[in-house]
Amino acid sequence: MNKSRKIASFLDHFPPKVAEYCFNLWDEHQFDFIVSKKRDSKLGDFRFSPSKGFQITVNHNLNPFAFLVTYLHEVAHLVTYQKYKNKVNPHGQEWKDAFLALFDPLLDVDLLPVELVQVLKTYLINPVATSNGYTPLVEVLKKFDVPTETEASLLFNLPEGTTFKLKNLILQKGKLRRTRYICLEVHTGKLYLVAKNAQVQTLDT
């Protein structure tokens, strides 16, 4: 694929004003970039193998701004690995510094929405292992989702006792335990721990 076509493919997934910057990171670091199917367990990942080299994947169903955050999260893993190999913690200070350095040129209201820039500036001081773990970022990124017929809600915004659907389960929201809610599966009575920032579909009861 020639360079102009590859940049065009980046425009399909990233906010237009930052797509070329993201392309240049791919061009500089020469990794295999895969737009993956939706995965409930993760938004993206970074892998390295001696035979295949570097690989980064990002879920296809993310809106452009969430796609950008996930992409730079994973590129930060690659940059950290290039410098330190496996000698540092995956989400330690070295990764945090790399993540901030990669994002820093984009923290400009001429490139990204002002409300997102404000949240990112705070988040990137001490980013957590997943963007889903930082509620203000989850909330601002959700604003850019394309509305669907069954609009998703963030679990922590729902009253206790609300019945909702998650995957193929019908659950009722219970008490908060640290970062997860104890939820009762309506049909079986089994208990599940559900992340407080999970996107769920509320049900009429």
From TrEMBL:
UniProt cross-references to Pfam families, sorted A to Z: SprT-like
Domain of life: Bacteria
SprT-like domain boundaries: 29-98
InterPro entries: SprT-like_domain
Protein name per its UniProtKB record: SprT-like domain-containing protein
Protein species of origin: Aquirufa echingensis
